[in-house]
Amino acid sequence: MSRSGILDALRNEERSLKSQLVAIQRAIEAIEGAAAPSARRGSKKAVKAVGRRKRAMTEEQRRAVAERMRKYWAARRAEKAKGN
User: Fold this and answer.
1) From CA 19, how far away is CA 22, in angstroms rounded?
2) Which pTM does this prediction carry?
3) Closest residue by Cα to residue 46 from 61, 36, 58, 55
4) For the chain, which residues make up each domain, given as ranges?
5) How far apart are CA 70 and CA 61, in angstroms?
6) What angle do CA 29, 34, 39 make, to 5 degrees?
7) Most-buried pick from 35, 54, 55, 83 (CB within 10 A)?
């Protein structure tokens, strides 16, 4: 292949790649454009996070957990002291 033939092939490939790049950029803009308006409007469905329901503990329940944990860690420290 001659030098001019190689250059023509490369230019054709460059044009092809540029057109693919434009198509990809348009697709990205379309996807971003489809998602952005609902978020900008502040739609509750778009903003609201789906997750677990928060479980509130009463003061009595918190005290009971704290007491159990104090006993647990005291037992762990005692067991560790026996080992050393």
Assistant:
1) 5
2) 0.38
3) 36
4) 3-44+58-83
5) 14
6) 115
7) 35
